[in-house]
Amino acid sequence: MNKATNIFFMGKGGVGKSTSAALTSVFLAQKGFQVLIVSLDPAHNQSDIFEKNLSDKPFQIEPNLLGIEIDQEFWIKQYLKDVHNQINKTYSYLTAFNLDKYFGVIKHSPGLEEYALILAFEQIRKDFSQLDYLILDMPPTALALKFFNLPSLSMIWIEHLLALREEIIQKRELITKIKILKKEFERDKVLKKIEEQRKQYQTLKDTFEDPDRTKINLVLNPDKLSLAESKRILEGLGTINISLSQVIANKVQDDSSLDHIEREFKGIPLLKTPFSETPLIGQDILWRFLKENEDKMTNP
Amino acid sequence: MNPIIKSIINRIISIWKISDEVARGKAVEIIEVELEELENIFGVLVLGSFIGMPSPPMQISLDLMPLMEKELILMMEKVDTANEPIAQLFSVLDIG
Predict the structure, then answer these.
(1) Binning pLDDT at 50, 70 and 90, where does residue A300 land?
(2) Which residues lie below 8 Å from residue B67, measured CB to CB, with a gap of 6+?
(3) Inter-chain touch B27–A161, beta carbons under 8 Å
(4) Domains and their CATH numbers in chain A
(5) Cα-based angle A187, A191, A193 (whole degrees, multiple of 5)
(6) DSSP states of A119-160 as a string?
(7) In whole numbers, what is the pLDDT of chain A averaged over residues?
(8) Which chain A residue's Cα is nearest to B44?
(9) DSSP assignment, residue A182?
(10) Which residue of B has its CA nearest to A169?
């Protein structure tokens, strides 16, 4: 049973997604929860924030807090290598040989970036299922929305391919029945693979849509640009049936007005994180900031 | 049984079997062409990006690709006859 709750941090570049994710992870770890912070953002700010050398191997930041940075390139390469090996195994030598030249180009195909993140996310969910929280620091909006969109979009294709494949199998069965007077029950490998894919994407879709398992925090600043982009994120997620759990207004100064944010995100809990004069770098500073602003931070 | 009669009976059985096979083959000829077309459509849909067609998200194609050598070869073969669809149809329906 996978008990870990996923907490995603989304928002425009520079609003403080990574810092908010780091603060939340420290807060939860200090409360005694087992936490893993995962940087899915290729910019990888978590190493700088915690002043540790995070990598794709889990690193113990604090007694209850682990950290990982996902290497997107590695996941793309690994995935393509697996596909290539399978092709070499199943195809005749000549066909496989002719396809070789395509593989150098495929790694630049659109869509593989977000799929690499999905593969990494699935692996992490499997490997760290016993933890309490997975804190996911997301890449900037465009890639983050593609990440959440991938299961829904793939499902549309999968359903169509499945229907077509079933028609092919039906026709094939009809031919063998007439020709050799009996039905051959050979399991179609392609159909089996499509069914596996459907299961994989459905599980992901269910995970993303379930507010108990997945919490999405939208981080923004009180300025107009970040509000405009945040509204687009809300709309984008709405079209794929994913709801926001919390809006985090970051870098709030005493004279900042949050009325417009409250109005736009009516009904969604709003957390205010005050502006910090000192850069929030290092565990001690993060923890001190949390202590000083304890009354404003709530448990996600 | 007289060996001559036995041989005649065997021949009749063999003729019956062959004509049965031919008739069954004829009966599914068009369905087979239809199946081939469907398999080609499936190939084009999944592996379209290899011949410059819109295709599903890359990972769907790549996951299915190792299992689709037959469709890939069929797709390449179809390219040769793609400019003569009427000729192909006439040959399927045995016209001319």
Answers:
(1) very low
(2) A90, A189, A190, A193
(3) no
(4) 5-77+106-145+213-296 (3.40.50.300)
(5) 105
(6) HHHHHHHHHTTTSSEEEEE---HHHHHHHHHHHHHHHHHHHH
(7) 87
(8) A161
(9) S
(10) B35
The predicted model scores a pTM of 0.84
Neighbours of B64 (CB within 10 A): 23
CA distance A109 to B49: 10
Task: Report the helix count and the strand count for chain A, using DSSP H and E.
Answer: 10, 8
B66:A154 CB<8 A: no
Give the Cα separation of A17 and A213 in Å (integer).
20
What is the edge-to-edge ordering of all strands in the sheet holding A5-11? Answer: A59-62, A65-69, A35-39, A133-137, A5-11, A214-220, A246-252, A270-274
Each residue of A184-234: pLDDT tens digit?
666 889 999 999 999 999 999 999 999 999 999 999 988 888 889 999 999
Q: Are A48 and A61 in contact (CB under 8 A)?
A: no
pLDDT at site A222: 86
Distance between CA atoms of residues B20 and A298, nearest Å: 79
Cβ atoms of A225 and A17 within 8 Å: the answer is no
From chain A, the residues in CB contact with B74 under 8 A are: none
Q: Which chain A residue's Cα is nearest to B20?
A: A179
B77: containing domain? 3-93
Count of the separate structural domains present in chain B = 1
Chain A residues with beta carbon closer than 8 angstroms to that of B67: 90, 189-190, 193
pLDDT category of residue B90 using cuts at 50, 70 and 90: confident
Closest Cβ opposite residue B38 in set A150, A164, A178? A164
Q: What is the pLDDT of residues B29-66, one digit of tens each?
A: 888 888 988 998 898 888 887 777 778 888 998 899 89
**Chain B residues with beta carbon closer than 8 angstroms to that of A115:** 57-59
Whether the CB of A108 is below 8 Å from some CB of chain B: the reply is no
